[in-house]
Structures are given as structure tokens and as C-alpha cells.
Design brief:
Layout lengths: L5 E12 L7 E12 L3 E5 L6 H8 L7 E6 L2 E2 L7 E4 L11 H11 L4 H14 L15 H13 L5 E5 L7 H16 L7 E6 L2 H7 L2 E6 L4 E7 L11 H14 L27 H13 L3 E3 H8 L3 H13 L3 E4 L2 E4 L1 H8 L2 H15 L1 H12 L4 E3 H8 L5 H17 L4 E3 L4 E3 L6 H10 L7
Parallel strand pairs: 3-8, 3-9, 6-7, 7-8
Antiparallel strand pairs: 1-2, 1-4, 4-5, 9-10, 11-13, 12-13, 14-16, 15-16
Helix pairs in contact: 2-3, 2-4, 3-4, 6-7, 8-10, 8-11, 11-12, 12-16, 13-16, 14-15
Length: 449
């Protein structure tokens, strides 16, 4: 029997790009998600966890590579008629007025112009832009433009309103105001839509808005956990229960999934797809120094506020610290390990030595680069060699980011050098003990990459 409460559902949905034979890049892996009537669902995860890809599949804008999307328990084919999307980018037509931007979808559906205009004006009034019907987008602030985006989506009377990080491009006060007004409309039942799906990387936003938060890990995107949030509205961000939920989410999302708990490289069979967090050494060093100043332990939620960072910016730092064995995350807190204390408390040379040992033993790509360079006749190789391998597992953009991170870390550790103009990685000296350990770890791996 179909579940009448479920409007839209993803069943074992996977998405990949590329052909077979090891060339596929998997973005989503067997994703399951049900959007229920009367509920706000938040999809929460770092960049690259497949949130927007899943949204596009649910909306019928992109086909799944495997699995099935059901709309009212029937397989979805083509564009989903019950979904409207509000994007992060305002995506307004600059040559149209506010009311013309809002009514354009209704006209495309064949609605008579007079009726479309009436509905558009009513949506504009509801969203708080009465008096700006004839304004052009260039006359509007960012918050006003996003209100137009909401009006354009809501005027279609969708069953499911999808929001793809609609507040992230706004300043803090404007985002807070618009978010609050949207929640007022929802809880006062002034919206015709039956369910909301919010895509976000902001943990506090997800907990403040949603009835259910679905947490995603990346590479590939998959569901890490689902939390039902029963706090009454309006929610108090400073309440112990609110903070407890935020801390739990931080703990789940900060889990170092690519390494064993002792911080060593996993066996060869499991280490081909290690994905490095994109963190520069200056930012990582700053985090470790701050933790040392605070006694070696701090609440991640408190760090987010103190540093003025969002979760999407802070989580890669905490992940890098755990991947390298410099910190551990437990119950929403991050604490320095002994190695992390040695790094944060050392001088420049001591830090380089500690980092060299850490990166050579835990970062697969750095070890593979060293292995390739030591086997190369002139102890040098072009970056394209490594890119060719990485593009088997990542998109081209992500492959470059992975290589850039590995090069940044490897150069800081003085494991190898890099000529940016020539696009070449090379060795300068005989291998150090950490280098030899990394080479031993990759021994027997077959080709260098």
C-alpha cells in the first residue's frame, strides 16, 4: 500500500558521470529520501556531498543513473510538476519587471495573462514586495531579489518547495529576516505548498528550520544519518537541547571516514578514493594554535561563532586536523592529540618535521606522488600524469583541487618541490625517513598511481 503521507521519494538513487572501465565519477551512491506532507526536511552536508545533484534529480531536471524517483508513488518521468526551486543565485531576467519575472512560469504553462498577473501580484504581496511590482532587478537589493525568487516559485503553487541554499548569498541580517518571514508563512499555513526541502551547509539554519535533518557524507554522496527534531517553534538557538543537536551533527559530519581511528593509512584495497579536505596550511595552523591557547579542547559550535565561519568552512579544517592525526572530534568537541600539541607548540622547523611525519603516513596521494617521483628517471614528473589518475575518481574540477591540496601539503612538509610555471613536481634531496615510510606504504601498489 502506498504511504499517502509521502509526496516525493528517492529510492536507491545513484548518479555518476563518465563511461565504464574505471572512468566513472560517482556523485551519489544509493540515496534514499522521502519528502512527507506537512514537514520541513533539510539536506545538510559539506560542498561535494551531492545535495544539489539530488535536488535536481527529485525535480526531474537530471536523470538518475540508477534507482528510482517516485512522485505520489508513481515513477517520475521528465520534469516534476509538483516541485518549484528557489536557487542561491537569484536567476532573474534583468529586462523584465518584478511582476513579469513572477508571472513568467504561469504564462509558460498557458495561463491567461490576466489571471497570471493577479496571481503574481498576490504572491508579491505575500512575500513582502508590495509596491515594487514594476521595478527592474537592478533597482533591488539582494534580499529583495531573493524575495522575487520565492514569489516566482510560490506562485506556481508547488506541492514541494525546494530551496537550494537561498540565504547563503545574503548578508547575515537580511538572511535572518527572510528566513524568519518564510517560517512565519509556513507555520501560519499561508503557503499553499505541502512540504519544504531545504538544501544547506549551515548547521544552525538546518536545526532552526527543519523537522527532519538528513546528514550527507561526500565522495560519493550518501546518507550518514537522519535526525528527527521535535523542538517547538520558534526555536531558541541558545537552549541546551538546541546546542546538543548541533553538537551531535558536528560530530557526525566531522567523522574522518577515510582513515582508521589511529590515524594511519587504510589497507591498499580501501585507499584509492581518499578525498582530501581543501585546507591551506595557514588556516590549519591557525586552528591548531587557537586550540592550544584554549587548553587543547573546544566546542566546534563555539569555534564557528568565534571565528566567524560557517560549518562549510570550519568542517574541512577539523577534518584535516583529524586526517593528519593532530586532533580528535568527540561529542561536538575537537581536542588536540599529542602530535597536534607538538605541532602547535613547535617552532617552524619542529612544525615541518611533525607535519612531514603526519602527511607521509596518512595522506595516500602524497605517498603516491613520492613513489612516482622516486621511480621517474629524472626524479620529476608533470602534473598531468597525476591529473589523469585523479580524473578516474573525481570530476576535473575536483581532481585539480585534490592535486592542489596534496601539492600544498607536500611542499610545506618539504617532501617534494613544485614548479608552477612548468607544471612539474620534482625531488630535491635524498628521501628522508618519513619519505621512506611513505614509499614503503605504497610498495607493491603496482603502477605509481
Amino acid at each position: 500500500m502506498p504511504n499517502r503521507n509521502i509526496i516525493l521519494e528517492a529510492r536507491d538513487v545513484s548518479k555518476w558521470y563518465g563511461e565504464g572501465g574505471g572512468q566513472q565519477v560517482v556523485v551519489l551512491n544509493r540515496m534514499n529520501l522521502a519528502i512527507r506532507e506537512g514537514q520541513i526536511t533539510a539536506l545538510l552536508g559539506a560542498s561535494g556531498s551531492g545535495k544539489t545533484t539530488l535536488l535536481r534529480i527529485l525535480a526531474g531536471l537530471s536523470p538518475a543513473s540508477d534507482g528510482q524517483v517516485l512522485y505520489h508513488d508513481q515513477p517520475l518521468t521528465g520534469v516534476n510538476p509538483g516541485v518549484s526551486i528557489v536557487f542561491q543565485s537569484f536567476a532573474l531576467f534583468p529586462w523584465l519587471s518584478v511582476v513579469e519575472n513572477v508571472e513568467i512560469g504561469l504564462l509558460a504553462r498557458g495561463m491567461e495573462r490576466r489571471q497570471a498577473r493577479e496571481k503574481a501580484v498576490a504572491a508579491i504581496d505575500m512575500i513582502g514586495l508590495d509596491g515594487f511590482e514594476d521595478a527592474r532587478p537592478r533597482e533591488l537589493s539582494g534580499g529583495m531579489k531573493q524575495r522575487v525568487g520565492f514569489a516566482r516559485a510560490l506562485v506556481m503553487e508547488p506541492e514541494v518547495l525546494c530551496m537550494d541554499e537561498p540565504f547563503s548569498g545574503l548578508d547575515v541580517l537580511t538572511a535572518e529576516n527572510l528566513r524568519g518571514e518564510l517560517m512565519d508563512l509556513w507555520h501560519e499555513r499561508k503557503l499553499s505548498t505541502k512540504a519544504l526541502l531545504a538544501i544547506t551547509h549551515n548547521i544552525e539554519e538546518a536545526v532552526w528550520m527543519a523537522d527532519r535533518v538528513v546528514l550527507l557524507w561526500g565522495n560519493p554522496g550518501r546518507v550518514a544519518d537522519t535526525l528527527e527534531i521535535s523542538l517547538s517553534h520558534p526555536r531558541d538557538r541558545k537552549s541546551p537541547e538546541f546546542r546538543r543537536i548541533v553538537d551531535r551533527i558536528y560530530t557526525i559530519l566531522a567523522r574522518p571516514s577515510e582513515i582508521e581511528s589511529q590515524g594511519r593509512i587504510r589497507p591498499l584495497a580501501l585507499r584509492r578514493f581518499q578525498k582530501l579536505p581543501h585546507v591551506r596550511m595557514g588556516a590549519l595552523t591557525g586552528l591548531l594554535e587557537l586550540l592550544l591557547d584554549r587548553g587543547g579542547r573546544e566546542d566546534i559550535y563555539a569555534l564557528e561563532g568565534d571565528l566567524g565561519l560557517e560549518a562549510d568552512e570550519l568542517l574541512p579544517l577539523t577534518e584535516a586536523a583529524t586526517v593528519l592525526g593532530f586532533a580528535q572530534v568527540q561529542e561536538g568537541d575537537i581536542r588536540l592529540t599529542e602530535m597536534g600539541r607538538q605541532f602547535a607548540d613547535g617552532d617552524i622547523q619542529e612544525r615541518k618535521q611533525v607535519f612531514q611525519e603526519a602527511v607521509a603516513s596518512t595522506v595516500v596521494l602524497v605517498g603516491q606522488i613520492l613513489n612516482a617521483l622516486h621511480q621517474a628517471p629524472r626524479r620529476a614528473m608533470n602534473e598531468e600524469f597525476f591529473m589523469e589518475f585523479l580524473e578516474h575518481h573525481f570530476t576535473e574540477e575536483e581532481a585539480w583541487r585534490q592535486l592542489e591540496t596534496a601539492v600544498d601539503w607536500g611542499r610545506y612538509a618539504e617532501l617534494f618541490a613544485y614548479d608552477e610555471q612548468a607544471g612539474q613536481l620534482y625531488l630535491e634531496d635524498e628521501p628522508s625517513e618519513p619519505e621512506r615510510d611513505a614509499l614503503d606504504a605504497n610498495d607493491g601498489a603496482g603502477p605509481p598511481l
